[in-house]
Amino acid sequence: MAFTIIVVVVGICYALYVRRTFPARVAAFEAGETRREPHSYELAGWGVAGAFGFLFILVTGWLMFQTVGEREVGIVYNFSGTIEGKREKGVKFIPPWASMEKENIGIQHEEWNFGKDNAAVSLDQQKVFANLAVNYAVDGNNVLDLYRRVGRSWKTIIVDARVPQVFKEVTSEYQTQEITANREKLRRQTRERLATELEPYDISVVDVFVTNLGFSQSYSDAIEAKQKQVQDAQRQEAKIREAKAIGDQKVATAERDATANIARARGEATANRLRQKSLTPLLVQQQAIEKLNPKVSIIVCPPATICIPNAGVTPVPQGGGN
Predict the structure, then answer these.
(1) How far apart are CA 233 and CA 226, in angstroms?
(2) Does pLDDT of 81 surpass 50?
(3) Measuring CA to CA, which residue among 298, 275, 301, 299 is closest to residue 287?
(4) Do strands 120-121 and 99-104 pair parallel, antiparallel, or not at all (unpaired)?
(5) Fewer CB within 10 Å: N-end or C-end of the chain?
(6) Angle at 54 between CA 48 and CA 55, to 5 degrees
(7) Fold of 105-215
């Protein structure tokens, strides 16, 4: 706009200058000192001024109407660069001496990568690698105050500087082996501290996410070796418990068998005592007969012995008496 105004002013001044010196230029033209008619110089001045003036009016008219989006607010600056006010969503009229910058007041998403060159550190001075994602929003009602206090570069000055600092402060409070187990707690503490840091600037923290959490290769190797040792120890303990269980089972089986044998022996002893009390020669003879084969018709009894089926009868040897 400034360049256009300068060109218009120069064109007008040149046309007026030519008109003022018109007689001298006519004499020079008649004397053959110039091949161009005098009035063409004046027309050139007016033509340049008119063309740039028309362009200025066209561009200015176009820029005087600007649109502000649904989740935006317009910050209006006057010619001196100071903030004049703000514009809400819709088509807005902006004077030609003013300019407008749009600011997003919806939820914004930014990510920070804590890699090898920008790693966080744990309480025991181990490097912590992670990706940190932050969702935040600017208060549309107080955006002018943010711009007046910080300026257009508020994100670089406030957010980009404070987010890494807060995350590194939180990780430095945990031992390395505690970070993975307390990931949710670490995320919550980062969000709460960041919200406290940004609240004075009317920036609200919607949520924080911690992803790709990792550690240095040396620490990962040490953790893997330790886990292998723990797994080996657990396997040995499992074998010991298994062997102890087998031994306990054998002991229990032996005790059960011994108890059964004792009970069986006691039962047999009791039965024998009862048999002894009830045993008579006739009962013995009856049981012996019951044990005989039903087809037996002859019983041979050795000499000088008692033949059980005929208890009390002593066979007489052959050749003896009657």
Answers:
(1) 11
(2) yes
(3) 275
(4) unpaired
(5) C
(6) 90
(7) Tetrahydropterin Synthase; Chain A (3.30.479)
